[in-house]
Amino acid sequence: QQQQQQQQEQTDFIRAVDGVSESILATRKLVTQLEDLVSSRATSADPRRDIEALHQLFTADMAQLTKELTALRSYVSSSMGGQRLKSCEAIVDALRRDSQELMTAFQKALEKRNDVLRELAQRQKLFAHPMANGPLLQLQQPLFAPPPSHAPPPLAP
């Protein structure tokens, strides 16, 4: 009966680890989507809303993942001993490292987005037409008259 209980504990642990692994995989897909979006340099199709939606999903996923890892760690420390305990702790630590790597990758992707936005702003400032913000027509002057700064000096009598 004790052997059956140990097998059941092992099966429960494996199921829990499998669930955490699936959560990590789903969150990794979010990070990959974010990395694809942040490198977009297009000015017409701004991915800001998509990035914000991914940020919210990522935050929720990481909160859930943290809860799952905490529950898994408490399960390991309370019910096992010996070599099995060491093995299970190593698995939980590996999963925790994976989740930390996801957080780091997400932060780097957001930093890259900031760099891309900064670069776009500099490029826009550099290549902006000087009259883009001013009037395109000068209504005070005749159509073919030279501008006042280039007008010939008046003739002397």
TrEMBL record:
Tell me where the transmembrane regions lie: none
Listed GO cellular component terms?
membrane
* Highest taxon in the source lineage: Eukaryota
Q: Provide the residue span(s) of the region labelled Disordered.
A: 138-157
Q: Which SUPFAM superfamilies match?
A: t-snare proteins
Task: Give the GO biological process terms.
Answer: vesicle-mediated transport
Bias-annotated ranges (Pro residues): 144-157
- What is the protein name stated in its UniProt record? Syntaxin N-terminal domain-containing protein
Give the originating organism. Answer: Phaeomonas parva
